[in-house]
User: Which sequence fits this backbone?
């Protein structure tokens, strides 16, 4: 029986419109054999969570370039807990200063991958950590 | 990013160089290359300030006028931004390049739930004319021109600029604003869109028509290939997409019964500089020539000044790296050199810390000093288009011209820019190339110092601009007070008139001016358009 593909939703929360990184990551994940859904721009956090539930994804990835990653991630984790899906793997990428990585990990973001991360790194991380 | 592909032999000698636009560079160039590409001195080059302006739009280049320096500036409250404006001007900056925060760019007031966490973060927050009165206080608006980096709500911001200038006692005929106002590139590359393509292009047409009749020194559109290049396209595509976008705006205004000649001289361009030095210089030389030729041949423009490709060339954000951030100071210096060798009239440079966040004061000043060193110290003002006549540069300029035309042909085949953007053709092409580039970078096929070569393991920490949450609170407080103290009846009336004009296809600009003067907010005006036009739905393509 064919193994179920890992399903990932890539979200662009907030007003920032720079989606080069999100689209590059989407290409890389797809080429690695994952099923990738891209939300498009200007999404609210609740809407990304709803789409994640509807699409029954294994992984939620957020791309944030505006600097608002801490408040956005806090909100995401709160809503995920509320909806009972906080077992899903959450990844964040974008413009993330090094000093914020421990902060994000404390909030519950398991994978923080700032711009410039090698594709293999996050693909490997997803394969190891996604609950299938 | 944006470097060429190098194929080397086992002794590390370079066997092949392929520029991003797909042109192969030879080790040596001579007169036979000029012959090969059909170079004709009069037809392809001519003198500076002469058609087709390959060398320069001014006969005396930087001798007669230094370039205008316009560092992208704005953060927090209008007070903080005003302070930074004044600081930059006191250090010799000659124009402003205004950064708005994301809520303002997206037509949300600071107290809107959508604005949470973003107020004043990547630019200054503007809710109403009251904020412009603070931001532009003590700036000589008849002497200092302002680029306004705003697109979806550019019409609102241009009206507000006129309103603030008139409030300060300037005449609308003496102020110079350049709103970016290029919605098609937002849809392709920067993402700050609100309305569907058709009404969004109509709003741009309204600003062009209004400026033609009312604001003689304003440049209503700055067509920004810049951001499409940032999103991953090649230098040749950057120019071809920018031109195709400009044609879409021209066509909108021509359909209103105007002659291209009457308004196209106010168009300006915002184009990017990073990557290969030679490809960059050739890109600008080819672009100046092609723009003049297209306007003359396709649109029948005769007035010489209307044929000029003018604009702001610089930036280079995608070229900067988070790794070894101080290397970005050197990169910026070379990009500025490329801008000068390309004959940029106006320039700006991403500061070395911008791979992280908006620049600190120190970083912004360093960029300004970079320009000043080039022009005042090392001789970039000495002679016009110093690379002219080089076998290599002239050959490459001709080859770039061919590549640009080839890419324009592809968009034309896809139905023109409005169609090619609506159906996602351009977005897909750009995203594909961004991915291919990233893959090459990770495989080491292109070199980026500090990223995939000469790495140091640990990145040095740089001092960063810190986001101030207090500023956001202050801004929201001021907005609340404004809504209590303004004449709300006048606001309602002006918004109603705006809605009627929007529905009836009247030019919205005079109505926006009334709204601004009654202290209607950016969010209120943008929502009128949301109600009338609806919102853009993005094709889910990557």
Assistant:
């Amino acid at each position: 029986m064919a193994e179920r593909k890992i399903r990932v939703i890539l979200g662009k929360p907030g007003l920032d419109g720079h989606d080069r990184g999100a689209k590059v990551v989407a290409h890389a994940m797809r080429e690695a054999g994952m099923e990738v859904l891209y939300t498009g721009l200007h999404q609210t956090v609740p809407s990304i969570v709803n789409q994640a539930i509807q699409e029954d994804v294994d992984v939620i990835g957020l791309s944030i370039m505006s600097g608002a990653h801490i408040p956005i991630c806090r909100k995401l984790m709160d809503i995920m807990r509320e909806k009972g899906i906080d077992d899903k793997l959450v990844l964040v990428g974008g413009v993330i200063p090094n000093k914020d990585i421990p902060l994000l990990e404390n909030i519950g973001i398991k994978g923080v991958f700032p711009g410039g991360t090698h594709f293999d790194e996050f693909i490997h991380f997803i394969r190891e950590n996604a609950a299938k | 990013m944006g470097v060429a592909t190098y194929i080397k032999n086992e002794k590390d000698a370079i066997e092949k160089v392929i520029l991003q636009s797909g042109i192969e560079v030879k080790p040596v160039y001579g007169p036979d290359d000029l012959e090969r590409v059909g170079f004709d001195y009069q037809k392809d080059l001519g003198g500076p300030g002469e058609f087709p302006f390959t060398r320069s739009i001014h006969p005396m280049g930087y001798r007669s006028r230094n370039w205008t320096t316009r560092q992208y500036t704005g953060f927090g409250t209008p007070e903080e931004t005003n302070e930074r404006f004044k600081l930059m001007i006191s250090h010799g900056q000659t124009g402003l390049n205004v950064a708005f925060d994301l809520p303002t760019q997206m037509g949300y007031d600071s107290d809107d739930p959508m604005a949470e966490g973003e107020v004043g973060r990547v630019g200054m927050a503007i809710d109403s004319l009251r904020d412009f009165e603070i931001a532009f206080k003590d700036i000589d608006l008849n002497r200092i021109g302002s680029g306004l980096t705003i697109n979806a709500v550019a019409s609102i911001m241009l009206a507000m600029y006129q309103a603030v200038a008139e409030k300060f006692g300037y005449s609308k005929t003496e102020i110079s604003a350049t709103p970016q106002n290029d919605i098609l590139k937002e849809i392709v590359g920067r993402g700050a869109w609100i309305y569907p393509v058709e009404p969004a292009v109509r709003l741009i047409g309204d600003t062009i028509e209004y400026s033609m009749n009312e604001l003689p020194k304003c440049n209503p559109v700055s067509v920004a290939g810049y951001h499409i290049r940032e999103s991953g396209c090649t230098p040749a595509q950057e120019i071809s997409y920018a031109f195709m976008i400009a044609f879409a705006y021209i066509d909108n205004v021509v359909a209103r019964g105007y002659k291209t000649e009457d308004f196209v001289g106010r168009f300006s361009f915002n184009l990017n500089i990073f990557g290969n030095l030679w490809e960059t210089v050739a890109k600008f030389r080819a672009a100046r020539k092609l723009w003049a030729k297209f306007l003359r041949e396709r649109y029948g423009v005769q007035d010489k000044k209307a044929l000029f490709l003018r604009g702001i060339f610089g930036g280079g954000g995608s070229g900067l790296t988070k790794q070894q951030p101080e290397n970005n100071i050197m990169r910026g210096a070379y990009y500025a050199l490329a801008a000068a060798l390309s004959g940029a009239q106006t320039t700006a440079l991403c500061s070395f810390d911008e791979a992280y966040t908006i620049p600190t004061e120190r970083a912004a000043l360093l960029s300004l000093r970079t320009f000043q060193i080039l022009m005042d110290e090392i001789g970039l003002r000495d002679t016009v288009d110093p690379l002219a006549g080089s076998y290599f540069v002239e050959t490459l300029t001709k080859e770039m011209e061919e590549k640009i035309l080839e890419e324009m042909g592809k968009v034309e085949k896809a139905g023109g820019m409005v169609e090619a953007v609506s159906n996602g053709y351009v977005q897909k092409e750009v995203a594909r190339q961004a991915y291919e580039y990233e893959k090459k970078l990770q495989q080491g096929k292109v070199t980026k110092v500090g990223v995939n070569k000469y790495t140091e393991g640990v990145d040095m920490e740089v001092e960063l601009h810190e986001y101030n949450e207090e500023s956001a609170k202050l801004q929201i407080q001021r907005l609340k007070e404004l809504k209590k103290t303004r004449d709300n009846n006048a606001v309602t009336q002006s918004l109603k008139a705006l809605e009627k004009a929007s529905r009836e296809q009247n030019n919205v600009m005079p109505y926006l001016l009334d709204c601004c003067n009654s202290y209607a907010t950016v969010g209120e005006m943008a929502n009128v358009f949301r109600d009338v036009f609806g919102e853009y739905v993005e094709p889910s393509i990557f």
About this structure: Chain A touches chain B at residues 12, 14-20, 22-24, 26-28, 38, 40-42, 44, 66-68, 71-72, 95, 97-99, 114-116, 118-119 (CB under 8 Å). The mean pLDDT of chain A is 93.
